[in-house]
Specification:
Length: 323
Amino acid sequence: MTATAPAAHRAATAPRGDEIVLRTRDLTKQYGKRLAVDRLNIEVRRGEIFGFLGPNGAGKTTTIRMALGLIAPTSGSVEILGGDIATHRATILPRVGALVETPALYLYMSGRDNLRAVAAVLGGVPEARMDAVLDLVGLRARARDRVKTYSLGMKQRLGVAIALLQDPDLLVLDEPANGLDPAGIVEMRDLLRRLAAEGKTVFISSHVLTEVRQICTRVAIVNLGRLVTESTVEDLVRGSGDFTVTVERAADALALVRAQPWGRGARLDGDGTLITPAPNNRGRELTRFLVDAGFVPDSLAPRAQDLEEVFLRLTDNGNGVAK
Ligand SMILES: Nc1ncnc2c1ncn2[C@@H]1O[C@H](COP(=O)(O)OP(=O)(O)OP(=O)(O)O)[C@@H](O)[C@H]1O
Ligand SMILES: [Mg+2]
């Protein structure tokens, strides 16, 4: 699934939804003995909101710094909008908006003056564009206030506004929701949705899956510098094979199920719901088994995998720590 429709107004520059906007080829960064990024291959297509996920220290920021040409890879390469960043940085970067870690803002200036300051450096940014980006990030009403009076979420959104000034084709955001409270995360998510509706390609990193799961079309999960998986969110959470069963005397039912050859993986979740495999993976066989044993379920349904669970499993390094 690609989001080609919203990009229609950019048809002159965005003829195809399957165009690769960002590609890494065996991208590698070594710091001393530590491989921060290890032969990473990812592809981001036009119109996608691509989630780049991994625990602390996984190599996300290092990858993004290499992608933006801020640091050189040890080996491998990055292609953005068809050009190699190592050799075409000057022509590529004006088409890329980026927010790496926290934005550098002038706290004693207004939001708008921060935009003006950056615009002066960039050159050729009309005032109308500043209005447009302030609208987009929801800061128009606060644009005259000093940035030091902004909440963290507002500062982050101002950082995104700065990244948007040149109307880039690609936005690269390194943990834009980092440190935000739930309301700030919702605002950031809404903002990213608006960007997607504008036809932007968005590459967003996060170590918190729930922050991005509702908005990303695809995700790559990295751990210890390596790509663990790259897929759609739907595929990630697709059936675990388990069923969720609400039943009275769940602990007794659990003991019985676990004694069966197919039921060893059964467990209770926090609120006492039985989570169990089924004989031959068939819900009806599980129902029959339970009923025959005197446990008539109140409900029984296939269980979608919890994305957080998938993430933790895929990034588990044995000791639960990712360094
Ligand atoms: N300049 C550096 N010198 C040495 N090691 C570094 C440097 N920058 C990063 N590293 C190491 O590279 C690995 C990846 O770090 P990176 O900052 O890319 O991870 P991350 O995924 O962005 O983590 P976080 O979620 O904490 O931001 C870590 O082990 C880190 O200690
Ligand atoms: Mg980081």
